[in-house]
Amino acid sequence: MISISIIMPLYNAEKYLDEALRCIQKQTYKEYELICIDDASTDTTTDILRRFQSEDNRIRIFSNKERLGAARSRNIGVREAKGEYLSFLDGDDIFEEEMLEALYNVMKRQDVDIVIFEYQHVPSGCIYEKKFIQHSDKFREKYCYNSFSVQKNEPIEYTRWSSSPCNKLFKKSFIESNHIVFQDLSSANDVYFVNIALFLAEKIIMLDDSRVMVYARDHRVPTRISYNRNPMCTYLAMEKLGKELVQRGVFVKVFQHYYCTLFFALQGALLNTKQEKRAREFYDFLRNEGLGRLINLSFEYYHKINEYIKIQLQNFYDLEFSTGWYKNGTILSGYLNMNSKKVIDLLKIYLEKDMQIVVWGAGRNGKSLLDFLSQHNIEVTCVIDKDEKKYGQVISGHLIRKPEEILDNGQLILISSRYINYKKYTEMLNRSKIVLFF
To answer: Of the residues 276, 297, 327, which one is the last residue of a structural domain?
Structure first.
């Protein structure tokens, strides 16, 4: 019996395909089919697939006569799928052996539309290094124990779920009954599919497991289908999403979430555009025409959105591209600004106990947290990070130090990084008085 249909679009994937297929074959859950759509590859992708198929009849191969792209290939896979649930994986990634088993179990137990789990983009050199993402008890209680819908979460919380389909398991009947398909774009072709599914789903749950289940190779190599990114594709995906939400009568319930997601999607599109000329042209399009089209999807609701998001979107009109303002904001900075009173009140409780504050993480999130604390006159003792290359550098006026150097048990550690080797630093974290996750 087939319970899970794994759908894998492939184009010239010979370099890592053998590894990916063997990784799937090692899954502890065996009741799956693997639907491989060869998108007119010109390398040995077809030969590799046929070799594996000769040994494993769960592999089904569909070959496009001409290149159709990842979206149309995935849509073929959905139509041909025999399983009750749908998984979308890529042919150059690595998967935790118990991934399918864990997902199937929670699907059957909770009877949800979508299960979300942890994944991480990593360089090829460390793709086999096991990683864990530690969630707080509050996080697990809110997202992992009972199902939820988008409307039950704050808009900024919704942005924590990526627009990638590779870290989600979908109920096929839910996808089909809502007529959800992948959008035919050269890149960002999964943005509409994933977001409309999340917005329409009544029952979503997060897998209660700290393990990273999918290790996705970074997109900076030509073998990735989404290597040649065009920021206009992200725009077209968000425009289609907005129009569909309006037409389906859902926009009134999720307009805050939509505009919050919109800003970070546009920001991400700009940041991921490698050519400055193309980025500038996209920026000019947004301020001259594009953003107005999205605002006018439902003009009356735009004026009711969160003030922080409204200011960020207005910046496209008020600030020039050359200022680079869009490079500074993060989802964390959005969360901190939208919940500033709650965050400050919480920190004051510990500050009254004369605890020293240590910020863990010297990346973009760490800078966002440091800037927020500085704006509210909250003193930080030091910044620590697991990346040895950053030691001795300065971020927002603070020297970056090794975590091992911080052993005082009277500290308040504010963690801005999602990826920490908790096994390695368990002793240190236990010596700290309080650890807060941001």
So the answer is: 327
